[in-house]
Design goal:
5 helices; two-stranded antiparallel sheet; about 5% strand; mainly alpha; elongated; about 150 residues
Length: about 150
Protein backbone atom coordinates (compact mmCIF):
# COMPACT_ATOMS: atom_id res chain seq x y z
CA UNK A 1 0.00 0.00 0.00
CA UNK A 2 1.34 3.40 -0.94
CA UNK A 3 1.51 6.10 1.68
CA UNK A 4 -0.53 9.02 0.39
CA UNK A 5 -1.11 12.46 1.82
CA UNK A 6 -4.55 11.32 2.93
CA UNK A 7 -3.09 8.40 4.90
CA UNK A 8 -0.52 10.71 6.48
CA UNK A 9 -3.30 13.05 7.61
CA UNK A 10 -5.24 10.13 9.09
CA UNK A 11 -2.15 8.94 10.95
CA UNK A 12 -1.45 12.46 12.23
CA UNK A 13 -5.04 12.85 13.42
CA UNK A 14 -4.92 9.44 15.12
CA UNK A 15 -1.75 10.44 16.96
CA UNK A 16 -3.36 13.73 17.97
CA UNK A 17 -6.44 11.88 19.25
CA UNK A 18 -4.21 9.50 21.18
CA UNK A 19 -2.38 12.40 22.80
CA UNK A 20 -5.68 14.09 23.68
CA UNK A 21 -6.88 10.86 25.32
CA UNK A 22 -3.71 10.49 27.35
CA UNK A 23 -4.05 14.08 28.58
CA UNK A 24 -7.78 13.79 29.37
CA UNK A 25 -9.15 14.01 32.89
CA UNK A 26 -10.74 10.56 32.58
CA UNK A 27 -7.41 8.88 31.79
CA UNK A 28 -5.60 10.87 34.48
CA UNK A 29 -8.19 9.72 37.02
CA UNK A 30 -7.63 6.14 35.87
CA UNK A 31 -3.85 6.48 36.13
CA UNK A 32 -4.15 7.93 39.65
CA UNK A 33 -6.46 5.11 40.73
CA UNK A 34 -4.11 2.54 39.20
CA UNK A 35 -1.13 4.06 41.01
CA UNK A 36 -3.01 4.05 44.34
CA UNK A 37 -3.84 0.35 43.97
CA UNK A 38 -0.41 -0.83 42.85
CA UNK A 39 1.62 1.39 45.18
CA UNK A 40 -0.12 -0.13 48.20
CA UNK A 41 2.08 -3.11 49.11
CA UNK A 42 -0.62 -4.92 51.11
CA UNK A 43 -3.13 -4.54 48.33
CA UNK A 44 -0.60 -5.59 45.71
CA UNK A 45 0.13 -8.75 47.72
CA UNK A 46 -3.61 -9.51 47.89
CA UNK A 47 -3.85 -9.08 44.12
CA UNK A 48 -0.90 -11.44 43.57
CA UNK A 49 -2.46 -13.99 45.92
CA UNK A 50 -5.78 -13.66 44.11
CA UNK A 51 -4.06 -14.16 40.74
CA UNK A 52 -2.48 -17.37 42.01
CA UNK A 53 -5.86 -18.51 43.33
CA UNK A 54 -7.39 -17.79 39.91
CA UNK A 55 -4.89 -20.17 38.36
CA UNK A 56 -5.99 -22.86 40.79
CA UNK A 57 -9.61 -21.99 40.06
CA UNK A 58 -9.04 -22.47 36.33
CA UNK A 59 -7.52 -25.87 37.06
CA UNK A 60 -10.57 -26.78 39.16
CA UNK A 61 -12.86 -25.66 36.32
CA UNK A 62 -11.30 -28.23 34.02
CA UNK A 63 -12.39 -31.08 36.32
CA UNK A 64 -15.42 -29.51 37.98
CA UNK A 65 -16.79 -31.10 41.14
CA UNK A 66 -14.51 -34.09 40.63
CA UNK A 67 -11.43 -32.06 41.53
CA UNK A 68 -10.26 -33.04 45.05
CA UNK A 69 -9.97 -29.39 46.21
CA UNK A 70 -13.13 -28.15 44.49
CA UNK A 71 -14.99 -26.88 47.56
CA UNK A 72 -11.93 -25.35 49.22
CA UNK A 73 -10.80 -23.46 46.13
CA UNK A 74 -14.30 -22.31 45.19
CA UNK A 75 -14.84 -20.91 48.68
CA UNK A 76 -11.40 -19.33 48.90
CA UNK A 77 -11.61 -17.56 45.55
CA UNK A 78 -14.96 -16.05 46.46
CA UNK A 79 -13.59 -14.84 49.80
CA UNK A 80 -10.51 -13.31 48.20
CA UNK A 81 -12.54 -11.63 45.45
CA UNK A 82 -14.94 -10.17 47.98
CA UNK A 83 -12.06 -8.91 50.09
CA UNK A 84 -10.56 -7.18 47.06
CA UNK A 85 -13.93 -5.80 45.93
CA UNK A 86 -14.46 -4.17 49.32
CA UNK A 87 -11.22 -2.20 49.08
CA UNK A 88 -11.93 1.46 48.29
CA UNK A 89 -8.90 1.71 46.02
CA UNK A 90 -10.00 -1.29 43.92
CA UNK A 91 -13.54 0.05 43.64
CA UNK A 92 -12.20 3.43 42.49
CA UNK A 93 -9.99 1.70 39.91
CA UNK A 94 -12.93 -0.29 38.54
CA UNK A 95 -15.05 2.86 38.22
CA UNK A 96 -12.19 4.66 36.48
CA UNK A 97 -11.73 1.71 34.10
CA UNK A 98 -15.43 1.87 33.23
CA UNK A 99 -15.17 5.62 32.59
CA UNK A 100 -12.22 5.12 30.23
CA UNK A 101 -14.08 2.34 28.42
CA UNK A 102 -17.17 4.56 28.04
CA UNK A 103 -15.01 7.34 26.60
CA UNK A 104 -13.38 4.94 24.13
CA UNK A 105 -16.81 3.60 23.13
CA UNK A 106 -18.08 7.14 22.50
CA UNK A 107 -15.04 7.95 20.37
CA UNK A 108 -15.50 4.72 18.41
CA UNK A 109 -19.13 5.61 17.69
CA UNK A 110 -18.16 9.12 16.56
CA UNK A 111 -15.50 7.73 14.23
CA UNK A 112 -17.96 5.13 12.92
CA UNK A 113 -20.56 7.83 12.25
CA UNK A 114 -17.99 9.89 10.37
CA UNK A 115 -17.47 6.94 8.01
CA UNK A 116 -21.11 5.94 7.57
CA UNK A 117 -24.33 5.91 9.56
CA UNK A 118 -24.60 2.16 8.93
CA UNK A 119 -21.25 1.24 10.54
CA UNK A 120 -21.52 -1.14 13.47
CA UNK A 121 -19.01 -0.23 16.17
CA UNK A 122 -17.77 -2.75 18.75
CA UNK A 123 -18.59 -1.62 22.27
CA UNK A 124 -16.45 -2.39 25.30
CA UNK A 125 -18.93 -4.90 26.64
CA UNK A 126 -18.53 -7.27 23.70
CA UNK A 127 -21.59 -6.08 21.80
CA UNK A 128 -21.86 -4.03 18.65
CA UNK A 129 -23.72 -0.79 18.32
CA UNK A 130 -25.13 0.64 15.15
CA UNK A 131 -24.01 4.24 15.17
CA UNK A 132 -27.21 5.38 13.46
CA UNK A 133 -29.49 4.23 16.27
CA UNK A 134 -27.35 4.86 19.33
CA UNK A 135 -26.66 1.23 20.15
CA UNK A 136 -30.09 -0.33 20.56
CA UNK A 137 -30.09 -2.91 17.78
CA UNK A 138 -26.49 -4.02 18.14
CA UNK A 139 -26.59 -4.35 21.90
CA UNK A 140 -29.72 -6.45 22.21
CA UNK A 141 -32.00 -3.53 23.00
CA UNK A 142 -34.74 -2.15 20.85
CA UNK A 143 -34.39 0.63 18.36
CA UNK A 144 -36.20 2.02 15.39
CA UNK A 145 -33.49 1.67 12.77
CA UNK A 146 -33.91 -0.62 9.82
CA UNK A 147 -30.73 -2.63 10.30
Amino acid sequence: MMMTDEWMRVIDMAEELSEMLLCSEVVKTYQDAHDRVYSNTDLRKKIIDFTKMKEQYEDVQRFGRYHPDYKVIMKEIRLQKRELDLQDEVAALRLAENDVQDLLDEIGILIGQSVSEAVKVPAGDGTFSNSSCGGGCGSGGSCSCSA
